[in-house]
Amino acid sequence: MKKQIEIELKRIQKQHNIKVLYAVESGSRAWGFASTDSDWDVRFIYIHRPEWYLSIDEKRDNIEEILPNTIDLAGWELRKTLKLFRKSNPPLFEWLRSPLIYLKQFSTTDKLRELTKDYFNPKSCVYHYLHMAEGNYRDYLQTDIVRVKKYFYVLRPILACKWIERTNTMPPMEFHDLVETQISNKKLRTEIEKLLTRKQNGEELDKEPKIQIINDFLEKEIAYFKNQVKQYDQELKPGTDRLDDLFRSTLDEIWK
């Protein structure tokens, strides 16, 4: 499938007259809890030719395609990417840490990684992960019979919140690393690992009785972070100069 993804990325470059700077896996396959039938969630950053930017009109700044072979392609234009980077956008920061890279060319993403420590904002990231956890918990896990696979989509963001609180850094993408470092309760960890093994083995995780020890943990942590996030310092507003420089240098590096 990696070869097919590379072919699709080359097609997109030619079709849209762009350069793809960076393309990665961003979903369950990168998080480490994919099942055998999981989609391929490919996310990429791209840049147009210089003349595209010399216009008085705003233009579309993203590309999205869902292909019939379970490949979900979505990309952000570089200027859009840098604006989101300035806001400490967690999905973008995750792309930069993905363990599954399909394409990387030119120096832009290396430079972005170097800037991450200066633009990372714990408050905005905790808000993002907490909102994700709350929504999935409320919608799928509060009844006696629950959609079991949704535990992963609440556990991962809550463990990401715990990582940020303890380290003041962006959490790793891999779910296993978060479980290993953020859960000390052996019984809780055992239940999570059993669930993870079932999903990785391709078992259909549909509706089953809720797992009380996991629910108790999630309720406690959600309540904690709803209060804790209010205590974070006011969000910083990093400067734009370095990102402007990066945008200009990328145009020069690619199209000179």
Q: Gist?
A:
With about 260 residues, this protein is α+β, with helices and mostly antiparallel strands. It is about 55% helix and about 15% strand. The protein folds into 2 domains: about 1-120 and about 240-255, Beta Polymerase, domain 2; about 120-230.
Strand and helix layout:
Blueprint: H1 2-16, E1 18-25, H2 28-31, E2 40-48, H3 50-53, E3 62-66, E4 71-77, H4 78-86, H5 90-95, E5 101-104, H6 108-119, H7 122-140, E6 145-147, H8 152-167, H9 175-182, H10 186-200, E7 207-209, H11 212-228, H12 241-255
Parallel strand pairs: 2-4
Antiparallel strand pairs: 1-2, 1-5, 3-4, 6-7
Helix pairs in contact: 7-8, 7-11, 8-9, 8-11
Q: What can you see in these coordinates?
A:
- The protein has helices at 2-16, 28-31, 50-53, 78-86, 90-95, 108-119, 122-140, 152-167, 175-182, 186-200, 212-228, 241-255; strands spanning 18-25, 40-48, 62-66, 71-77, 101-104, 145-147, 207-209.
- The protein is of the alpha+beta class.
